[in-house]
Amino acid sequence: MPVTDTIATDNLEEILASLSIKLEPEEVVNQLPLTKALEKLLAATQSEGLSEISHFLQQELEGYSGQPPAYRYVNLSYFDAGGQFIEGLRQYSSYPVGTGLRQYSSYPVGTGLRKLELHLKNGLTLLLPQQIFNFLSQVSGKEVVSGHISPLEINILLENIRREVIHQVSVITTKT
Questions:
Q1: For residue 149, what are the β-bridge partners?
Q2: pTM greater than 0.70
Q3: Cα gap 161→163, rounded to integer Å
Q4: In the chain, how many domains are there?
């Protein structure tokens, strides 16, 4: 095996191992940003000519232009003009299953990993577009004036991304 193959394999294994380390959310953000691990992994996969996984990693880092994958859905929180949480739009609400109002608690997040980690590191939430609030106000019968993706949901999303990257890389490395 050429020296470059050994280096690339070692780096890939090291990065894969670093992705599977279980840390507290603060440690993930402060000590082992997923962004850095994916950037290293992207460089390794590009140098190995693994275009399919490289494209996947690029989308995770920069964001999805279309519909993101199913593991990138998060639960939302909505608030009225008084700052009160609107319970009726949650998945486990008192609204009957057939009303369709339960479906608005889940939201696809196509935002890139770099921005997600930056928001989390700075204690920020992700805000939703105003059009969503207008629509939800109409369907719920209550004025929805704000909503966000909480830091807890961002942490859950980061863990989902971490697991999916490990899975995708495992599939690729077992093929080669």
A1: 126
A2: yes
A3: 5
A4: 1
